Amino acid sequence: MTSHLDILVSAHEIDSRIQELTGQIAGRLDEDAVVVGLLQGAFVFMADVVRGLARHGKTPRTDFLWLSSYGDAQESGGRINVLADLQKPIGGKQVLIVDDVYDTGRTILFAKSYLASKGAREVLTCLLARKPLAAELPAPDYLGFDLPDRFLVGYGLDDAGKGRGLPDICAVKT
To answer: Which of 41, 49, 80, 118 has its CA 20 to 30 A from that of 100?
Structure first.
C-alpha cells in the first residue's frame, strides 16, 4: 500500500505539533473536562492528545462518539449517522471534540450541536487536519495541519479500513 502514497506529514512533525497543541489546550481545559473522540478516524490522534495533555498536568475523562458519513467511500455521503453514543453524561461539562479531518464541516458541526444538546457547558474542537474547502467554515479551536484536498490515509485515517496504522499522514497517489 505504501508505494501508492505520498507522505505529507511525517511522524516526527506530528509529534512536534501535538506537543504545541496540547500545551495550548492544557491552559484552557477545565479539571473536569471531557475529551470526546470521533470514531473511527480520530482514535490515534486522540490517544496522542490525551497523553500530551497528561504531560502538561491535565488528565481529562475520555469518551467516544461514533459518527459516520463516509462508510467505505472516499467522499462523504452528506448524511451523519450516530453509530454509537457517549457512554457517560456530559451535562455541565466542558467538552473537547477531537476529530481527524475538517473538509465539508458536516461532521464536526453536527458533533458540536449534538454535544451541546446533551448539556455540554462549552464545546471546543481540535482537528488533526483541515482541507482547503473548510477554510470558509468556522475555524476549529485547535488545528494540527492545513493539508491539500487529497484523499488522506495513515495516523488513524483510512481507505476502506486500510492504512490507519501508518505513522505518517499520507495522500493516496492518483
So the answer is: 118
Q: Mean pLDDT, consecutive 10-residue segments, the chain of 174 residues?
A: 86 98 97 95 96 97 88 58 94 97 91 97 98 88 96 94 95 89
Model pTM?
0.90
Exposure b/e, 57-80, CB count within 10 A at least 16 = b: ebebebbbbebbbbeeeeeeeeee
- Catalytic residue of the set 100, 103, 158, 168: 103
Determine whether 103 is an active site residue: yes
Yes or no: say if 100 and 156 are a contact pair by the CB < 8 Å rule: yes
Q: How far is CA 122 from CA 83, 113, 117, in A?
A: 23, 11, 11
- Of all helices (H) and strands (E), which one includes residue 64? strand 61-68
